[in-house]
Amino acid sequence: MALALNIILLCHISVNENTLNTLFYIEEWLVQLIETELFNLTIGVSKKQGAVVLVVLLLVVGSLTLALRNPAGMEGIRVAVYNDTGVLQSSATALLNMFLWMNADADYVNSTEIQQGVLDGYDIVVFPGGPASDFFSSLGVTGGLAVLDFVEGGGSYFGICGGSVLGTNYYLRLFNGYTVGAVNGSGIKIIQLIVNGNSTGPDLSSEPSTYGVLYWSSGYFYSSNATYMSTVIPITLYPQNNEPSMMVCRYGAGTVFLSYPHPEYEEDSERDGTDYFDYYDDPDSEWGLLMKVSLWLVEASK
After folding, report:
1. pLDDT tens column, 254-276
2. Between the N and C ends of the chain, which has fewer C-beta atoms within 10 Å?
């Protein structure tokens, strides 16, 4: 029984977001042990005592994994994930599952619904990966103005890859600047990004110094207006040039988050709902970081 107490104590001390997959494996291992005599032989206790210890361990580890799957934080926050012509479906799927994991009320919206004013019922609008030109074309003038009015009036914009490009001066002009890339050459790979632990926006002081993030010929965000750029808050930076790969800024009464890389994918987990890029070995999860960013977006817009 002392072994069980030691393992329980270890779980309470060391558990964090990036240990989720390890806890999944522990759960599976414990279930397998329950079905065999191996546990009794390993720790030298009776079958009855072994069963009691296993049940206790399984309950503890299960409760920890459940807490990590469904953290407190974004209850009552309404998130609209854009899903229409040109959207990279795996990105939209991962983003929807990520916001559901955050306990937000999240669902898909299309360009017609945006044109008809559906964003009035949401706090955050999310544009996934995909060609920004397709998004812009589908939204049309009416949809584009609806997004601008939504953010200017106190809503939040969350753009990934093509969705981030849509928010720049190339299209919607939520960010008074452009994207420049690709920083680390062409292609798809996992690269390390530096976390801005001194952020004056979202509190990132407890985050790791770096994250491994999916890079897809990704660029950085740049404005020739130095005064304006000084108001932009980097979330992560490329080690190659110290330029922002993820950033937040303000637009009117609202807030904007842009990420050229793809932090929405969980390469070592199925919880993002897609097997895209699961062949990459990346134990990091950026979902906790993105929840901090999302909470800040909403709170800073009030």
Report:
1. 999 999 999 999 998 899 999 98
2. C
Q: Which pTM value belongs to this model?
A: 0.80
Please report the DSSP string for the chain in residue order.
Answer: -HHHHHHHHHHHHH--GGGHHHHHHHHHHHHHHHTSSHHHHHHT--HHHHHHHHHHHHHHHHHHHHHHHS-SS-TT-EEEEE-STT--HHHHHHHHHHHHHTT-EEEEE-HHHHHTTGGGG-SEEEE-SS-HHHHHHHHHHHHHHHHHHHHHTT-EEEEETHHHHHTSTTTT-SSSSEEE--TT-SSEEEEEEEE-TT-SSS--TTS-SEEEEEEES--EEE-S-HHHHTT-EEEEE-TTT--EEEEEEEETTEEEEEESSBTT--TT-STTS--TTTTS------HHHHHHHHHHHHHHT-
C-beta neighbour count of 230 within 10 angstroms: 9
205 Cβ partners below 8 Å, 6+ apart?
Answer: 197, 198, 199
- Of 106, 132, 153, 124, the closest CA to residue 254 belongs to 153
pLDDT more than 70, % of the chain: 76
- Under 8 Å between Cβ of 245 and 183: yes
Counting every residue written for the chain, the total comes to 302
Decide if 111 contacts 140 (C-beta within 8 A). Answer: yes
In the CATH scheme, what is the homologous superfamily, with its name and number, of domain 78-300? Class I glutamine amidotransferase (GATase) domain (3.40.50.880)
Q: Where are the domains of the chain?
A: 2-69, 78-300
Contacts of residue 281, defined as CB under 8 A and 6 or more positions apart, other chains included, come to: 190, 267, 268
